Q: What sequence folds into this?
């Protein structure tokens, strides 16, 4: 008989296993379906705070400042991530406009802020009942924020346009590049197993009556 | 809380539920309060397997398969150049790149907007059929296919982002401008449906068969 806390299950094939600790940086794979199950990461909480904070700084210029300026036929035209969303909106493709808004503007911001606030609360060991919900929401948004796909889209657009106009790269382009880097880095620095374990610790700690009180 | 532990046993067989959101193992012997058991750590509702995963995934994937036709046959972009209009479908855009010698970028768009949606739909149907008829072979490979579908699903939005940027940038009034076409809506719907299908599906059902 083994306590259930010493066991773990593969999320993909439900195989029950005894927990093993791997050295930092090494991945643990499920022996049956070969899915990578977890990877211990060093200083995950601190890294996530630093990365998401710098991402949040870059967010506003990345979305609202012009990315590129086109010069063609004596005219120039510049566009930002936000104006690209507005162009769908003005053409009355509302469904597409909403999806573009969510995946390229809202979710990247929402996810960075969620991770920032969760990591900060874990670091400062503050427990609020909303803490698990924040991390769960961040997990569910994982695949819905798509700044890195947008970046490839920017490159494709550059190649498409380069034959018919001169392109200037604006400040927004570099801020957006930085935003994408921080998004990818925050995902790879995040060790959700440690995050959940810490949340559980803080929770039980905050619910214990303090012995030196009164 | 102790559990009898054998190797090659699923958590379900041992009476344990694995929380979908935080991965905690929860003993299922407690009677649920409101019909659903909540994870003590993260408060997500937990169950052995996703509820109605197979019919829901079928519904979403068949919707995606139907919508794939208008998405590929209708024009996705319209370019106005000095008064003349040119409509182009997804395939026209890809062929344009191949004709102008940009093979790399043409291949990226071809993979992201033609191969990936097709692969997702065929792959999911294969996995669903395999559950329906309890095919017990190639389970590892089917799991890899599912994880690949999960990973790759979002990359189809690439074309939509390109059109968004094109219509924002290439807008020189009456000289030349770019507009989205009706296929954009259908194409976005295909991507959404297949992403939701991968989310509602439960790969553990493959291994239960």
A:
């Amino acid at each position: 008989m083994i306590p259930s806390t010493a066991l773990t299950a593969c999320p993909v094939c439900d195989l029950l296993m005894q927990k093993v600790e791997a050295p930092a940086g090494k991945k643990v794979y499920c022996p049956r379906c070969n899915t990578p199950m977890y990877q211990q990461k060093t200083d995950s909480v601190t890294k996530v705070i630093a990365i998401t904070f710098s991402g949040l700084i870059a967010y506003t210029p990345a979305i609202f400042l012009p990315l590129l300026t086109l010069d063609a036929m004596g005219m120039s035209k510049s566009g930002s991530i936000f104006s690209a969303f507005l162009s769908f909106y003005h053409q009355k493709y509302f469904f597409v406009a909403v999806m573009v808004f969510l995946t390229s503007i809202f979710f990247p911001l929402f996810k960075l802020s969620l991770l920032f606030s969760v990591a900060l609360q874990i670091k400062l060991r503050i427990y609020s009942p909303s803490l698990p919900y924040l991390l769960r929401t961040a997990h569910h948004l994982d695949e819905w924020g798509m700044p890195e796909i947008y970046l490839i889209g920017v490159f494709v657009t550059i190649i498409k346009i380069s034959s018919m106009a001169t392109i200037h790269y604006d400040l927004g382009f570099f801020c957006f590049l930085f935003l994408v880097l921080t998004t990818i880095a925050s995902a790879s620095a995040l060790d959700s197993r440690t995050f959940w374990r810490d949340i559980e610790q803080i929770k039980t700690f905050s619910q214990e009556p303090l012995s030196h009180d009164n | 809380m102790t559990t009898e532990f054998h190797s090659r046993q699923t958590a379900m067989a041992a009476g344990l539920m694995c929380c979908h959101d935080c991965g905690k193992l929860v003993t299922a012997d407690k009677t649920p309060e409101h019909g659903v058991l909540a994870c003590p750590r993260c408060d997500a509702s937990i169950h052995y397997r996703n509820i109605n995963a197979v019919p829901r995934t079928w519904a979403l994937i068949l919707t995606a398969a139907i919508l794939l036709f208008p998405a590929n046959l209708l024009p996705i972009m319209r370019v106005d150049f000095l008064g003349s209009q040119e409509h182009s479908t997804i395939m026209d855009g890809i062929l344009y790149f191949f004709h102008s010698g940009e093979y790399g970028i043409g291949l990226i768009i071809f993979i992201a907007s033609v191969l990936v949606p097709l692969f997702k739909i065929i792959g999911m149907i294969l996995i669903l059929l395999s559950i329906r008829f309890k095919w017990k072979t190639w389970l590892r490979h089917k799991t890899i296919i599912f994880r690949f579908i999960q990973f790759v699903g979002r990359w189809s939005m690439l074309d939509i982002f390109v059109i968004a940027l094109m219509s924002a940038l290439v807008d020189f009034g009456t000289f030349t401008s770019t507009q989205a076409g009706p296929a954009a809506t259908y194409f976005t719907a295909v991507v959404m449906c297949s992403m939701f299908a991968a989310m509602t599906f439960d790969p553990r059902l493959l291994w239960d068969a």
Q: What stands out?
A: The radius of gyration of chain B is 23 Å. Residues 1-48 of chain B form one domain. The beta strands of chain B are 2-3, 16-18, 25-27, 37-38, 45-46, 77-81, 84-88, 171-172, 176-180.
